[in-house]
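Try this one yourself first.
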């Protein structure tokens, strides 16, 4: 991994508990709420890093520590070589200038045109009028809405608004771009377009992108590495492909299942066994273990016919991953030998048949 551009070390963020009616009368508060609880991790320069968690996991608070919209209660956050701990507002300004941010609800200025929204941070930074105009044109062309410069946000679709938000965040040439639930208000097709644009920002401009999301599909599509959060803590951290293909924590497994949907549920499995009298098995497909070509070869070697009845292969971090559920037809000894051959390479779950369902178990 390259040098970190963001480093958390035992970072803690606590908020005072709200006073209830009884405590207000007594002038007391309850216990503080710990939104970020001892997080230690590095974000490498030039990567797309995902932070995923369900509502209340602490992910949005974590990202607000990066641009010091929130300050740590304990521990430290270092951004591009500067420790943010205890810095004054005046000393934080140059750090924030190197950090762009895009939001779920776009946060555009309704009274300004598209060009005016993108120009706003340049005005604050003291750019000349001519330089602002040139930079705005460049950015609007980059995000694909050069023809919308003179319209107002109310006339734009959600995807177009987010493109304006991205252009505005890039205005001052930041080294880091923070995307806080930037696609959760968009439909799937528009989400895919915005994610492709974030990949382009990362690839062509070399900007480090930190994506905060509750959607594993976002992580699957663009992230190089991912941290999974629960109750303010990082419960799993690693290469996005590894986290998808071998999730360790129950929260991660729930996210992966929601994104892939490649394994039949018990009800679907019952219907598959009723419709397909052969042996029903699920085989994992990935670049490390089995490939679909390898499955075909093993079955052919043992004279077993295999028909795909469920599943699918997708890409995670631009690498193949998924599961295929197959009906295997052949004599019992040949089918068992084929299963043994597949288990030498990958994970296989044997579901048996309608008349002899197996106790679904996986082997490696």
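Now uncover the answer:
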């Amino acid at each position: 991994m390259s040098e970190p551009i963001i480093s958390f070390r035992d970072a803690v963020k606590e908020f005072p508990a709200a006073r209830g009616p009884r405590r207000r009368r007594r002038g007391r508060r309850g216990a503080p709420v710990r939104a970020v609880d001892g997080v230690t991790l590095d974000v490498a320069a030039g990567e797309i890093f995902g932070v995923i968690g369900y509502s209340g996991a602490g992910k949005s608070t974590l990202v607000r520590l990066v641009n010091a919209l929130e300050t740590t209660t304990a521990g430290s956050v270092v951004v591009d070589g500067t420790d943010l701990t205890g810095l004054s507002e005046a000393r934080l300004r140059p750090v924030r200038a190197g950090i762009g941010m895009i939001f779920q609800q776009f946060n555009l200025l309704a009274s300004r045109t598209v060009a005016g929204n993108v120009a706003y941070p340049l005005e604050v930074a003291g750019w000349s009028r001519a330089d602002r105009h040139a930079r705005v044109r460049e950015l609007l062309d980059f995000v694909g809405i050069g023809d919308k410069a003179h319209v107002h946000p109310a006339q734009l679709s959600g995807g177009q608004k987010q493109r304006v938000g991205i252009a505005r965040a890039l205005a001052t040439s930041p080294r880091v771009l923070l995307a806080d639930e930037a696609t959760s208000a968009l439909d799937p097709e528009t989400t895919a377009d915005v994610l492709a644009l974030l990949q382009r920002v990362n690839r062509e401009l070399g900007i480090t992108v930190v994506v905060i999301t509750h959607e594993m599909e976002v992580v699957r599509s663009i992230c190089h590495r991912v941290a999974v959060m629960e109750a303010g803590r990082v419960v799993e951290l690693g290469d996005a492909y590894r986290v998808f293909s071998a999730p360790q924590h129950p929260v991660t497994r729930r996210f992966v299942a929601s994104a892939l949907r490649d394994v039949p549920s018990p009800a679907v499995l019952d219907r598959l066994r009723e419709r397909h009298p052969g042996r029903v098995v699920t085989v994992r497909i990935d670049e490390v273990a089995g490939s679909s070509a390898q499955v075909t070869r093993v079955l052919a070697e043992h004279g077993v016919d295999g028909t795909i009845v469920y599943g699918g292969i997708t890409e995670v971090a631009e690498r193949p991953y998924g599961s295929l559920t197959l009906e295997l037809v052949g004599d019992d000894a040949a089918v068992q030998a084929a299963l043994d051959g597949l288990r030498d390479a990958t994970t296989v779950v044997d579901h048996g048949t309608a008349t002899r369902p197996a106790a679904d178990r996986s082997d490696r």
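Discussion: The chain has two domains: 4-98+174-259, 263-363. The longest strand covers residues 4-15.
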